[in-house]
Design brief:
By secondary structure, this protein is of the alpha+beta class. The chain has 3 helices and 5 strands. It has a single domain, classed as STM4215-like (2-Layer Sandwich). Strand 4 and strand 5 form a beta hairpin.
């Protein structure tokens, strides 16, 4: 097993979400790799790239990894409707996307689950999307 794909995968996910017009319509450029510390900087919606779990996926001749990672939509609104629209855009941008991670390749990129929850002000609603990327190294 190797963790060597993690940084390239996160960068590729960030590039994909940042360049997607539907995601940008919902959050603009507010995509981060860490939650904002107790503030929202006046943003109604923002996205964080979050937790990751890596499992082995390789053979005697190649390295690989199964990366399960979270993308979370944070909302300062009372309802879920806007955040669900952004979640839909993120799913459309990532599921089966051909992300560039260098010489290695993503064999599969799928949504595993989604979880909605109520938060405390200023972030009143959260939707966490868990994705699985299967990576085959060269």
């Amino acid at each position: 097993m190797s963790y060597v794909f993690s940084a390239a995968l996160q960068s590729a996910v960030y590039r994909q979400l940042s360049s997607d017009p539907a995601v940008a319509a919902g959050v603009g450029t507010a995509i981060y790799d860490a939650p904002l510390q107790g503030m929202t900087d006046g943003k109604t919606y923002f996205v964080t790239l979050g937790d990751e779990v890596v499992k082995p996926f390789g053979s005697k001749t190649s390295e690989g990894g199964i990366h399960e990672f979270d993308v979370t939509i944070h909302s300062t609104r009372d309802g879920f409707a806007g955040a669900k629209g952004i979640a839909e855009a993120i799913c459309s941008a990532l599921i089966d996307a051909h992300l560039d991670i260098g010489e290695d390749r993503i064999v599969s990129l799928r949504l595993l689950r989604a979880k909605t929850e109520r938060g405390r002000s200023p972030v009143k609603r959260l939707i966490t999307l868990r994705f699985r990327a299967v990576i085959d190294g060269v």
